[in-house]
Specification:
146 residues, five-stranded mixed sheet, 7 strands, 18% strand, two-stranded parallel sheet
């Protein structure tokens, strides 16, 4: 019971991204399951809070969710994502060099990171090969490229 209580308190308030410690916990969950198992777009407001707390004015955002980031006043440049049109349209011609991304802050939803809706996974391999610099609720990964 104590272990159950501890893990419940440990994951708070990110319950959707909970994974048992036996499989590596929530930090490893993105390597096991994706889509609605971990990422419903629930961390968009937390991303805004993270930006405010870290003095980040704009992010390159690979959003996976139906909420409109503009509605929340998020300052971003859209990257390939799903399903909103401004993100979906970026898959064929990414606005960055996938082999050598330009400097900036990249906020990438884990479902987009693994390009689950595509057969050819050639947009985010550079990011998949690296540890993120930060994580927003385990569903949005932050990469800082100097």
């Amino acid at each position: 019971m104590a272990l159950l209580l501890f893990t419940t308190l440990w994951i708070h308030p990110h319950y959707l991204s909970y994974f048992n410690v036996a499989v590596g916990g929530p930090q490893n969950g993105r390597n096991i399951l994706l889509d609605s198992n971990i990422d419903w777009g629930q961390d968009l407001l937390r991303l805004q809070d993270w930006m405010d707390q870290n003095g980040v004015e704009e992010v390159n955002l690979a959003w996976f969710g139906t909420a409109d980031p503009d509605y929340y006043g998020l300052n971003y440049k859209p990257l390939p994502g799903f399903p909103r049109p401004q993100f979906l349209s970026q898959w064929t011609r990414p606005p960055f060099n996938p082999a050598d991304p330009e400097p900036g802050i990249y906020a990438i939803s884990v479902s987009n990171l693994w390009e689950i809706q595509l057969a050819d996974k050639n947009v985010y391999p550079w990011f998949r090969a690296r540890q993120p610099d930060d994580s927003i609720g385990n569903s949005i990964l932050i990469y800082k490229i100097p």
